[in-house]
Design a protein that fits this description.
Blueprint (H helix, E strand, L loop, with lengths): L17 H16 L4 H8 L3 H11 L10
InterPro entries: Homeodomain-like_sf, WH-like_DNA-bd_sf
Organism: Sutterella seckii
Pfam families: HTH_23
């Protein structure tokens, strides 16, 4: 049996610029609307699943500009 390193790099959304935070929030909502699961969104964006869930819940009340053109 071989050992695989399961560590992943995660971003700290609190330290991102306001513009970067807005873009991460927008991407979370778009992925979620496309049917991507929360854990997969977190993995794709390098964020925690808890943060993604918080943004998705907030996104139902606030528009992050995630509407499709």
């Amino acid at each position: 049996m071989s050992y695989e390193d399961k560590t992943t790099t995660t971003l700290d959304g609190r330290k991102a610029t306001p513009e970067a935070q807005l873009e991460l929030r927008r991407r979370c909502i778009v992925y979620f609307r496309d049917g991507v699961k929360r854990a997969e969104i977190a993995r794709r964006l390098g964020l925690s699943r808890q943060w993604v869930t918080k943004i998705i819940n907030l996104g139902s009340r606030v528009d992050f500009g995630a509407t499709r053109i």
